[in-house]
Amino acid sequence: MIDAAPKADAPPSPRSRWFILGYGAAQTGAFVCFIPLLSLLLPEKAGAIGGADRAMLLSLAAMLGGATAAAANLLFGALSDRTRSRFGRRRPWILIGMAMVAASLTLLALARTPIHLIVGVILFQIAVNALYAPLTALVPDLVPDEQKGLISAWAGAALPLANLFTVLAVSRLAGSTGAQFTVVGLAAGVLVLPFALRLREPPTTGPAEPFRLSLTALRNGRFRALFTSRLLAESAVAINTLYLLFWVQELPTRSIPAGWSALDAFGVLLLVSTLAATLGGFAAGTLSDRWRGRRVFVVAGCAGMALVFVMMVVWPTWTGLLAAQLLFGVSHGVHATSVAAMTAEGLPDRKRVGRDLGVMNMAVAAPQSLAPACAAMLLALGLPLSAVFVAAGLAAIAAALVLALDQAVMELSA
């Protein structure tokens, strides 16, 4: 049973294990919507439609989709802040978003030209952010600080579990595009709808404030530093997500275990990083709750991801790539869990949680546009794919430095 609705304006009370597990399942459903698409289905579609220009088509589709995602997340977060209904503020948008996701996945499955693919990605990003923005706002709404690390760990497991689903279910249906997109939509619905339908939110009183899209949260120094760091770190993650399959395909054939295809090797890499990310995320969530210190975990996750891209470039063999993706899983799990909890604790305006989370989530969504744009520029200059991964490593290093310098400034001014 999902917890009873708390009283309006009361501080969040401890959440039950069923709420936490249900929220984790819903987050996994949201990630199941887009991780198989970004890591496998969209590259496959780009390859089938774009041929020799597949990397450029993938970069363009991801770039425009990422720009749409950044704007849509802010929009639907702000809309959910001011929604007044007997069903709550966030729940109606979660349900509407889930319906829109199903429709957009159908359009993507039917895409046959570059234009159709790009339009489908744009519509999909609008849909998935209508679902995701209000879902993330539930944590600062309903979860006390002492449980934010734990629930962020369960939410952080969404990405590795979605990767696992990609490997064990979606990739096994290779050759049947319709079946792949169908299983993604069905799995997402099964995971999201039970939580959304039983969710109880506190009643909202008084008239809704005027609708206003604003980036004023960025005036807060701590929020701004975290936003910048997250933008850089998520750019590195986006490169690994979008281009890992192409990197595997560029490995010398003799480097991949005998009898394996590039897709088989890709699946093993996702499985390894999935298991590692789950363990890393739960360790970081539990320890950061206990120590009530998130920053050190965020910085450590960024530093670990930077090392991953160094390994991929200087050790371009199957063994090197396997070791790198194992480290990527641990590092990304640590970063994703701790940065989510740190964000939920540091929002500057409690009355506009959805809007301010939408601003922060722009740091997650924008890299889906910025990262492939930078990749497309490097590739257009004739540089190899390794240059793209070098750029990702530099972004991860910069992400760690931003938070480390912010901490130093805070200590000096204290």
Q: Give the number of DSSP strands.
A: 0
Distance from N terminus to C terminus (CA atoms, Å) equals: 45 Å
CATH architecture level-2 label: Up-down Bundle
Helix/sheet category: mainly alpha
What general outline do the C-alpha atoms trace? globular
State the helicity in percent bands.
over 70%
| Binned strand content | under 5%
Largest sheet: none
- What sequence of helices (H) and strands (E) makes up the elements? HHHHHHHHHHHHHH
CATH superfamily: MFS general substrate transporter like domains
Uncertain residue segments: none
Description:
This protein has 414 residues and is mainly α. The chain has one domain: MFS general substrate transporter like domains (Growth Hormone, Chain: A), CATH 1.20.1250.20. It is 78% helix and 0% strand. α1 crosses α8 and α3 runs antiparallel to α4. The radius of gyration is 20 Å and the shape is globular. It starts with 16 loop residues before the first helix and ends with a helix. The mean pLDDT is 86.
Descriptors for this entry?
single chain; 414 residues; mainly alpha; Growth Hormone, Chain: A
Brief summary:
This protein has 414 residues and is mainly α. The chain has helices at 17-50, 54-82, 91-109, 114-142, 145-156, 158-170, 177-198, 221-250, 262-291, 295-314, 318-345, 353-365, 367-380, 385-413.
